[in-house]
Amino acid sequence: MSILFQAGCTFIVCYSCLTMSLMYAWPSSTIKIFLSANTTLNRPMDDNEIALFGSFSSMSAIFVTPFSGYLLDKIGRKNCCILFSLPQVISWLIVSISVRVEAILGAMFISGFGGCILLLAPVYVSEFCQESVRGMMSSVSMILYGLGILVSYLLGGCLEYQTMTYVCLSMSVLGILMLWPLKESPLHLMKQNNEEDAIKAVAFFRRVEKDSKAITQEINAIKRVLCADIEITPEEESLNPYTKKKEKISKWQFLKKSRSTRRALFVALILYSATMFQGLVGVQVYADPVFEEALPNMPTTLACVILAIVFVAAGCAAAYLMDIAGRRPLMMYSSFIAGVCCVGLGTQIHLHWGPHWLTGVFAYIFCIAYNIGAGTVPYVFSAEVFLPEIKSLVSMLSMEWAWICNFVILYIFTPLVAAIGLGPVFYVFAIVCFASAVFSYFFLPETKGLPVDVIQTLLVKN
Length: 462
Fold this sequence. Notes:
The protein is an all-alpha fold.
């Protein structure tokens, strides 16, 4: 029952990722409408406005993400999730009452303020779930993110424009209401020296009595993590019980002093770069025009829906494999397979050496491989590898870099396709995929089932 309850709480937290991706994938089903003379807006969008329409949410996420690191410690994980779910409600409200191009672009920009939910949700989940299911539960954020893309494609293909906006507005409001009954992260409460509420939170998420042995063990484990020295391993500390209590230092001083944290941040930044530049984010947002060129014999709505279904199924597979196969093998092998698919997809689109259905096969296998590896592993790794003292800052820096990369790839994707063609673009993605596999082999430590203080020792091994 404890695991099931944690799974339910995880779904509620990660539902915010679903509502975020509704707006994120919305351009795919509306670009044609907004470009046409029969647009639902007050005038058709031009090419530059279309580029901004697809990338504006990433631009605003770049600006707001630095504040999320501060707020994560200041107001807590739960309140941050509620706060950064509000932009989706505001955005859909604007879209539902206005038909001006400027208002639509403004709504996309506002929606990006909630982009850091992809940082907040895994952090929150990883702190209230027990270690045996932590990887699986942390990856649910990406499953629901993919499910949101699927819902966006379906609603865009099946509902009228105005009806879709009302449905998405209602779903966004529901996400905020579901978050209210949850308890705050026990680790955050302990950092605030609020042990009594931390005990209540652990009891809430574990479904046990407050005076049970399991609660005492959990609280002691949190205390051990909070007291973990940034240079002394747990084994050394156990041999020397008289080790002095570490002094309070700023987060930037902590980062400067801790070699393991700098190593973890370096690995996280490279993994997030792989997430964005392996290319699937561009395919998702511009799915309609991509599939119109790649699969001319298949209705684009059907191709997009199948892509989203495959994405969600691959996310579920990633969640299952995360605590079985481990993070490192998933990232290595899936990146290599994604690279092979990109080569096949690029040559097929560029040279047309096979039937059209082969393009779809390569595209969907690429989606599966990407989501099992680069689409999930970086978010799980970032949520579990940093010590509590520095977690908010370095998680913010990682997500900030991810949004910068995301904005770059979305803004240049359409001009790049126009300049060199869709096929050669996938050659670039293939290079990134193969480089990601090599990097993971040499630098990515295996963190499956390990507490954060042990993970830190893996990062500084010679």
